[in-house]
Amino acid sequence: MSELLKAIPPHDAPTERAVLAKACFTDRAKAEAALGRLSIDDFYVQVHRDIFLAIKELCAQDKELDLVTVASRLHQESYPNAIEVVSELYGITPVASLDQYVDEVLEASRVRKLREACANFLDFTAEDWRDKKAFLDLQTEIENAANSASTLP
Fold it and tell me: What does pTM read for this prediction?
């Protein structure tokens, strides 16, 4: 494994929390639109991924978004300590726009993806270079990561 991947990858846990909290305190249509730009892989912290999925499921079911319904959804999924997990969002008072927070989470996610693609490149052995398909797959991975990073607002 490349030394590049041994360090903690770029992420912004407070901004991830701000996205989730802001989504719960924003008009559902606006929250859906903003969260529609994200995928589960854009969140680095596992509990944030779980909360994101709960919010997406509530939106898909046309349910209102608030911290109680999110905690309830996590509890239905047998999530341990659902109330404690969601309660960390109560103390957050995000002042920036939801879109701004989403942009910041996307930026960290894209940097992680590019970093991982570059580390995979560095881990290629002499034998790997002879495998044209593996090389082309890696080239595509790097190009996709680089292109997504260049589309930041």
Answer: 0.80
